[in-house]
Amino acid sequence: MAALAPVPCVIPAPDWAALATRMASRHDEVTDLLNLLREHADPAAGSAADMEAVAWALACASLGDQHLWQDLRLASRAELTQLIAHWFPLLAARNTGDMKWKKFFYKQLCLREGLTLCKAPSCGVCSDYALCFGAEEV
Description:
- There is one protein chain.
- By secondary structure, this protein is mainly alpha-helical.
- It has helices at residues 16-25, 27-39, 48-61, 68-71, 77-87, 89-94, 101-112, 129-132.
- Helix 2 packs across helix 3.
- It is globular, with a radius of gyration of 14 Å.
- The two termini are 24 Å apart.
- Residues 1-8 have low confidence and may be disordered.
């Protein structure tokens, strides 16, 4: 298996203007996602400021309509996976079923609350809905 390229030192940059309204109206969600990411951060991955910037970008972009890697303006899902594995390796290790990241994050939030049925936001109109919400294990 080919090794992945080193994680770039670039902080993902979602379309902040497109997310602004959702970020304001769903602030609690962003906070919950930030807390989830912070709890799984690797302090050796980089500076605390860079980790916060990556966590903030991931949390806010999770409110977007597209796949998370697209909302973050990354080149591929593999690049997103590599980014998450670098900054939040304990969380990445929990995604044993290769669940789509946005769905995985929200599933983790639901599990914290003891909920067993939960879906990621903004996915209902996605053309890949059946791929993300088919039978899979966490």
